[in-house]
Specification:
In chain B, 11% of the residues lie in helices and 17% in strands. With 93 residues, chain B is an alpha+beta fold. Chain C contains twelve helices and 17 strands.
Chain lengths: 206, 93, 417
């Protein structure tokens, strides 16, 4: 019997004949590398023999406008080709989007929210507009880290590191490999450093 | 024209199975170009302009290949010395 | 001809993370294509963008002809293919509409061009997202039309398309349809063959068919060649036009068999197959209710069938991989004994039904026990076909099968009232 499980049952995520099937939604703004980071996660998972899908919320991109991307990762071939309606996790690249209802829309009960957020962690509930205990929320000072490491406020790879702390669906090494394949040497190095730092500085909001 | 062939006997893709020279397009003609070799200066403008390559230089003079000349009259129009006259077919002796 | 190329196990196939457009570009890159001519249009653009990269990097020896319109792109392909080249182009929506008159020329001249159609809704209003009305618009143009479900199939089918098109019993152009955005812009991990294996599968460069004309001795290669000149595309009046159309009717009859053969050769080579290449049934044998579908939605429907089967419901699906020529007999055979059939169409012929409904109704007309038939028009302009939407009309169909009659033959689903 095959059962489709979300992350709540999957840490560690492969138990017996349980099949991994995870859906992640990325929130950001046009130009922040939202689709790129979704692709990076998918590519990393493919290195671990997972089946993957990564796609943007289809449409012409407009720089600065809120955009979405989706990643599906599974142990079995992914047949479904519709949008993601009930993600297991959402990742928010841009803290100015946190107040939007779109962040928690359809998110599974007890689902994971990973945020680029630097303020007092307990305040994050109010910013997102959810009650404590509804979701598992993680914060990461991604904008600050990106400025320190990349000297530019590009938070996509930082938030990938942060997601992996919250939801260890792929190994960090696989992500590094995907980054090395996607970016030229020095840029890859910096992004790998950023992923590591973001991973280490990500905290669950208690 | 020989008898019409069935589709199984035709070559691929609607290509012509006979040469285009088999079709004597001269019978489309209503007006016939007649060359006055006395007037002709052999400038060859008619040879240049003929769209059907029906004007032929036989080594001494201009002749018209009436098998393929459709009678468009471009040669007569372009001739600088008016050595070509377009004559209705039925008036040609 | 037996397949003699040894099987390539999955671990010997290269893992590639690409979207549907890139997968098509890779397939074309490996298919020894002589000429590519195209004009960019969303969501197809990535195909020619990627392919022109291959050209610029010297990775292929293809002549890439940049043109000012799709009409010219197809015209270049016609000229190239008439000269004996293997030619490819790609387009979407309005671009396909602009190609329309040349499509008929390509098929009637029996030129084995391959065209990737990245399905997109037609204007107006302007829309860049997926539906199948662009493909349905070329339905009667004499092209073979294949629809793919996922990125892997887009890669596989593009290579197969050259082999199908160039088969000496076929010699017809092939359109490979992939859903705009749902496939074109979705990254999936696929397995691709080594270049040399693809070359071998296709038998190297395009081989010319032979034909016979009165004025040349024996059979000559069917291509423009000053050494044995042919007039390609001359005038044909009521004396011969009808006979030449019979050639196209006849060629289409061979397509089913060739598509099946290529599908099984591909299976032996790669371990991947798509039903028999023409239709891909799933859980149909004992099903009371069956849904037919084309394109990427097939995967979503299959996942819903699995869910409903787990709940004990006798449901199934048929993915229609080939829309032209349409496999009327095969589908009638598959749907024997089914109580209710839902035909999904991501398109509509205004004033009539969805285009695949018309085919399936025709197919079933001479069946003794006809299933109840409902046409579900869905997903126009990229409206998403969610699992929930599909599950709902499966349940509606189960109700129809129980009641024994259809109230509304055509239903518009996922649209606001």
């Amino acid at each position: 019997m095959i059962s489709y499980v979300s992350h709540m049952l999957v840490l560690p995520y492969v138990v017996g004949d349980v099949v991994l099937f995870v859906e992640i939604r990325w929130h950001g703004r046009g130009g922040q590398g939202v689709w790129t980071v979704s692709n990076l996660l998918a590519v990393a998972a493919s290195y671990e023999d997972k089946y993957v899908q990564s796609f943007p919320a289809f449409g012409p991109e407009r720089s600065g406008a809120p955009v979405l991307a989706f990643t599906r990762i599974s142990d079995e071939p992914i047949e479904i080709h519709s949008m993601v309606y009930e993600p297991d996790a959402v990742v928010v690249l841009d803290c100015t989007l946190l107040g939007s209802r779109a962040i928690v829309e359809g998110l599974k009960k007890n689902g994971t929210i990973v945020t680029n957020y630097e303020d007092e962690p307990s305040k994050v509930y109010g910013v997102i507009g959810v009650e404590k205990g509804e979701y598992r929320i993680y914060t990461c000072p991604a904008s600050r880290l990106a400025l320190e490491v990349l000297k530019r406020p590009i938070t996509n790879t930082a938030m990938l590191g942060s997601l992996l702390k919250a939801l260890p669906i792929v190994k960090l090494e696989s992500v590094f490999k995907a980054i090395e394949k996607r970016f030229p040497g020095p840029i890859a190095e910096k992004n790998i450093e950023l992923v590591k730092r973001a991973y280490n500085e990500t905290q669950e909001v208690k | 024209m020989s008898e019409l062939r069935g589709w199984r006997e035709l070559p691929l893709g609607g290509i012509a199975y006979r040469l285009s020279t088999d079709y004597k397009t001269g019978d489309w003609r209503a007006l016939k170009p007649v060359v006055d070799t006395e007037k002709c200066t052999k400038c060859m403008l008619c040879w240049i302009f003929c769209p059907d390559m029906a004007v032929i230089w036989d080594g001494e003079k201009i002749v018209i290949n009436y098998d393929y000349c459709k009678g468009c009259g471009i040669c007569a129009r372009e001739c600088p010395v008016k050595a070509i006259e377009m004559v209705p077919e039925h008036e040609v002796k | 001809m037996a397949q003699t190329i040894p099987h390539v196990p999955p671990e010997k196939q290269l893992l590639l993370n690409v979207n549907g457009d890139e997968a098509v570009a890779y397939a074309v890159k490996q298919s020894l294509v002589d000429v590519v001519s195209a004009y960019p249009i969303t969501p197809q653009t990535i195909i020619v963008e990627k392919f022109s990269e291959f050209v610029a990097n010297g990775e292929v020896h293809t002549e890439f002809v940049a043109v000012e319109s799709e009409h010219s792109a197809m015209s270049v392909c016609v000229g190239a293919a008439a000269a004996g080249a293997r030619a490819f182009t790609a387009t979407s929506s309005q671009g396909l509409a602009l190609m329309w008159e040349i499509l008929y020329i390509a098929s009637a001249l029996r030129l084995p061009i391959v065209l990737a159609v990245v399905n997109r809704a037609l204007s107006a209003p302007i829309n860049i997202h997926c539906d199948h009305n662009d493909a349905y618009g070329m339905r009667d143009s004499g092209w073979i039309q294949l629809f793919v479900e996922n990125v892997q199939e887009a890669y596989d089918t593009t290579i197969q398309a050259f082999k199908i098109a160039e088969d000496e019993n076929v010699l017809l152009p092939v359109a490979v349809n992939l859903d705009g955005f749902f496939l074109s812009h979705t990254l999936e991990n696929i397995r691709i063959l080594p270049d040399n294996v693809v070359h071998e599968f296709l038998g190297g460069h395009r081989k010319l068919a032979k034909t016979r004309v009165d004025y040349l001795d024996g059979e000559v290669p069917f291509a423009l060649n000053p050494a044995c000149p042919l007039s390609i595309g001359p005038l044909d009046l009521y004396d011969y036009y009808f006979e030449h159309k019979m050639h196209q009717v006849e060629a289409m009859k061979h397509v089913l068999q060739v598509v099946r053969k290529v599908n099984s050769e591909w299976y032996e080579l790669t371990g991947r197959k798509y039903g028999d290449g023409v239709l891909e049934p799933y859980e149909v044998e004992d099903a009371d209710v069956v849904v037919t579908v084309l394109g990427s939605t097939a995967g979503t429907v299959r996942s819903v069938v699995k869910k409903l089967r787990r709940e004990g419901k006798k449901v199934g699906m048929v993915k229609i991989r080939m829309f032209r020529p349409f496999p009327h007999k095969d589908i009638a055979e598959l749907l024997k004994g089914v109580k209710a059939v839902g035909v999904m169409d991501r398109g509509i012929s205004f004033g009539s039904y969805g285009q695949s409904y018309l085919e399936i109704a025709t197919a079933l007309y001479s069946s003794k026990e006809k299933p109840l038939l409902v046409n579900y028009i869905y997903g126009l302009g990229g409206r998403d076909a969610s699992p929930e939407l599909i599950e709902n009309f499966f349940k509606e169909l189960i109700g129809i099968a129980e009641k024994g009659y259809v109230e509304e033959e055509i239903r518009f689903i996922g649209v606001r009232g």
